[in-house]
Design brief:
mainly alpha, 2 strands, 8 helices, about 170 residues
């Protein structure tokens, strides 16, 4: 039995819907659905909360074969380089505003700051569109894809390089 099946079976035994469980855990219903489908795994703190809400121990919730390999995702929520671009754009907008308000003779420089500030800010918004293949975090347990042979973090439900799905294969 997988982690997701454990959650689903106990939830159904208690007569709870995904929505009711999500409200008790203060997460979205989609998050509970992803846990049950096996596309996502909660971190250990959330796993403890789930076990408390469902009235079972962590040993019952997490299958034995998963415990040694379990590691939460270290994937960043936001690319830092795009934040740097956006902050630089905001700073140029602020400098342009200051020059406009402080001195009337600096209108040309203020206009240049405004234009570059807006362009750099927009570049920061568009920067995350160009995603690169994930770099394996060597501190996390690694898994080798049987399809392409590349190593990646253990907690990916699919190979990030070739898209091989471990749950359907």
């Amino acid at each position: 039995m997988t982690f997701g099946e454990s959650i689903k079976n106990k939830r159904e035994l208690l007569g709870l819907t995904q929505q009711e469980l999500s409200e008790k855990l203060f997460v979205s219903r989609q998050t509970v659905c992803r846990w049950e489908n096996g596309t996502r795994c909660p971190d250990m703190i959330m796993a403890k909360k789930i076990s408390m809400v469902l009235g079972i121990s962590l040993d019952e919730l997490i299958p034995g074969e998963m415990v040694q390999d379990y590691a939460p995702s270290k994937e960043p929520l936001l690319d830092i380089s795009c934040v740097k671009f956006m902050l630089t754009g905001i700073m140029l907008l602020l400098v342009g505003t200051f020059l406009y308000v402080a001195d009337d003779w600096n209108m040309e420089i203020a206009a240049i700051c405004f234009v570059f500030g807006i362009l750099i800010f927009v570049a920061g918004l568009l920067l995350p569109i160009h995603k690169q293949a994930p770099v394996p975090d060597e501190t996390l347990p690694q898994k080798q894809c049987p399809h392409c042979g590349k190593n990646h973090d253990f907690d990916y439900p699919k190979c990030p390089y070739c898209g091989h799905d471990y749950y359907t294969a």
